[in-house]
Amino acid sequence: MEDDSVELEPITNFEILESRVSGNALMTHPPLWLTIASGEIGVAAYPAGASNPRITAYHAGTNIEGYDDKASWCSSFVNWSLAQAGISGTGSALARSWLDWGTPLDAPRQGCMAVLWREDPASWKGHVGFYLREDETFVYLLGGNQLEQVREHSYPRAMVLGYRWPHSPCNGIHPAGLT
Description:
Elements: H1 13-22, H2 32-38, H3 53-59, H4 74-84, E1 103-105, E2 113-117, E3 126-134, E4 138-146, E5 149-156, E6 160-165
Antiparallel strand pairs: 1-6, 2-3, 2-6, 3-4, 4-5
Helix pairs in contact: 2-4, 3-4
């Protein structure tokens, strides 16, 4: 039997993410912050009694600077990712702080901030991550503190409170309808 296998070059985390987001069609210009965030895939909280210093670094640009990886860190991760791309975030570790930041979007765009409620829609609690795609039931986000790590994860679409985009042009990317 002939071996038809082909040896493939290793791919980066973002190349894996690109194929998931775009249905295997290469995207030409993902937002820089999404590229940066994808490079963090796999960063995870440590077990009790230890703390991942990388997650502590995510907190550095927020109002919980110095906290360990046991504090909620989804918003800290979004702030950190944007800061690496030269964009100021909310500076807050509260996920819902993103509802007052940037420009609201009527429809999501790849890489926009998706803000979700947690426990109760009227609660102060929430979650924030970078929008990747959606289907009839779920929205798929790349974010921090998703099952205690940086990863892609799905959430019910009904939990979305809003989508946000930076006010200024970022990486030459404007969502449709914004100039």
